[in-house]
Amino acid sequence: MSSEYDVERLLRWRSARAEADAPPAPSARQLIALARPWWERLPEQFAAYVERLRGQQLVYAHAATTPTQGQGPYPVPALLVRVAQEVESSARVLYLSVRDGRLRMRFRLDADSAVAEPRLEVTFVSDDQSRPLLEAVASQSTGHEYHLEVELPEWLESIWSELRVSDRMPFRFIMHAPSTAG
Amino acid sequence: MNDPPRRTRGALNHLWFWSFWHWSVESFRGGSLLHDPVHGLASHWDEWFRHEASADERRSIARAGATERSQRAFVVWLARCWCREVELGGAPVPPAFALGQLADVPPFRDWPAFARYRSTYGAEGVSAIVLAEGSDGEPTDVRAVEAIMLPPDAEGTASAFIAEGFHASEVDLEVSRQAAMSVLAGPGLASLLARWLASGRRPYPRTLAVALALGWLAVAGMIVWLLIGPDPGVRLVPLGATLTALWCTLSLVALTTATVVVVRGWREGHRWRARLETSQVRLRVNGGLTLRGGSAGLPFCLDTLLATYRAESRARTPTWLWSQAIGGLQAHAGGWAATGVVTASGQIKPVMLEAKIRAVRQTAGVRAMLVPRQRHAQGLASPISIEVQAAHGVAGRATPARSPRGPLGFAAELRPLRITRCRSIAQAVHAASGMRNVAQLCTNLLALAVSAVMVAALPDIRDVLAPPVAPMVVAPSSASPYELWVSLDTQRPEAFVVTLESEFWTNRRAAVAPALGPDIPPRAELSLRRLHRQTFSTEEEGTVWVARRHRFLGRELIPGERVGRYFLSYLFRLPHG
Lengths: 182, 577
Prior knowledge:
By secondary structure, chain A is of the alpha+beta class. Chain A has helices at about 5-20, 30-35, 40, 45-55, 155-160, and strands at about 75-80, 85-100, 100-110, 120-125, 130-140, 145-150, 170-175. The longest helix of chain A is centred in the N-terminal third of the chain and has 19 residues, at about 5-20. Chain B folds into three domains: about 5-120, no CATH class; about 145-440, 2-Layer Sandwich (Ribosomal Protein S5, domain 2); about 475-570. Chain B contains 17 helices and 23 strands. Chain B is elongated, with a radius of gyration of 38 Å.
């Protein structure tokens, strides 16, 4: 028996075993489902997250004992979804620019809940109607600051192009660390 | 064609930084950026460099960072040119802040020329003693604190206090800021001024200070002479005039100096407080600590004062008081460590001291320590060398250094540690700045004592230097044949003395007593006694002299000028009372 013949047979046998053990390839329906945004695939979870976001009231309550310099920026309520827990947090938008149909944003996560995640999947949720607006990936810059850039739907572009960074933002954040995304 | 000047060349080489700056300014103006271009320098640069810079600009930046020399050229240009041209709240941007901000963002965080700016502002301050968890007092527990002050941002969105390199309660930091403000204008300032008035160095040249001290000594000498020395007689008037003139001059100099210093310091303190109230203070303590407890309040407060002083002295020369107080503190800040909880009114509350003093004693470069006034604070600074303490174990701590043959013995020289106990921030500033001057304290005490005596003696001196007009003798006279009343028409009876000279009656002298009622003039009462051997047989023989009375704080001096002469015959015939 030649050794070449034995090796070829052995490889075929191993390949047949691997094919038999491998999970079946996703069907077209499954592929379409995977391409859908996560809130469509997991509507109950989205609803639960939105409910928690709605519970966060991050508005200024003027109980200061001394006059303040200014009203300052409005924090954006954020729900940070980690593997083990969900943390209610807030973010401050430091830079916001809508140009050529794209949104460029820089925000800083509240230091108490800051994570060392280099990337975060950020879902913008409408502040008034609690519906998802868009999804983007934010990458960490310096410290607790993240940057994201995303294409905007036309209807959002016309509204958000008027926004100033010191305005109250018409959205809230659901943030997923990559390990928990999808 | 001539080369452009060096300054212009620098700007041309770094046009990319101006591109960034204008993007930042315009974005802020357009409402896209939250913080103003200076307060948000690092964040804005990061955004611009990563996402906005063009390919050409990136190439220029890469060229600027290609060699350490070109990197240093950028650093120098930034500090000397850019920081002076860019204004924040009417003041130039502190170079240490700009360099420190950029040092942490790409690509500068990889540039060796920025390495020295990553962990320091170059603003040496009073060190804080923050014990690490489980530490019994190690040199590493003495933490360098740096503080810089930035003007408020345009939108008022920046925090009043930024903790860099550590985490602390915002409330504690705010209390430190309030305490610093109380020293600039408030109860703390009043306390500081009182301390300066009592024992602070004065803004005189040394020769003038010596001359003034000698002047006070001379005044004291003249007072002693008038009190217990030989009677000056006819020299009383020049002596009194000299004494008064010298005392007035010295008092005027002292009061004018004090008033000018206090008023200027007061005004400037209020201005500084207003600036501090609206400014941002950035405190840096490296190490990523999370502070528990408020014992770092005292150093934070002192470093906030230092930051205010540095920021304000860049714009204009500080007044003498603040140059001495906080400028003096700045000059010695590196040699001081401090611990204590502060209150918003500037009081210092007790803290745990033993381990902290132990830590400071082991730290090279720190020679003095500010602690709260509490029991055992002084005793802990006993001059025992730290090596000996370690060899025998300190406060129940196990001895770290042991030899197989037994405990080690050390004979190292003592390192003196000066511990100053303070009740208030003002006291701490006064002590750490070196304002206290023992010679001035002695001079002040002497001046105070001398002035008290002079004020008490002023009526007597007035009678000598500005005597009242000579009085007339008026009715009534005494009805008794054994008593002579000499009533005088004067408002200042204490300035006169009456003398009877007779060869029938015994000579007498009496001071004029004040009036006993509204219609009764002041008078001198002399009892009349006949001489045993009378030259004259008539009892009306005799002369009464009215003279100016001289005295100094109860000591009767020889009477002065005689201003009235009356015969007894005339006085006896005046209407009786």
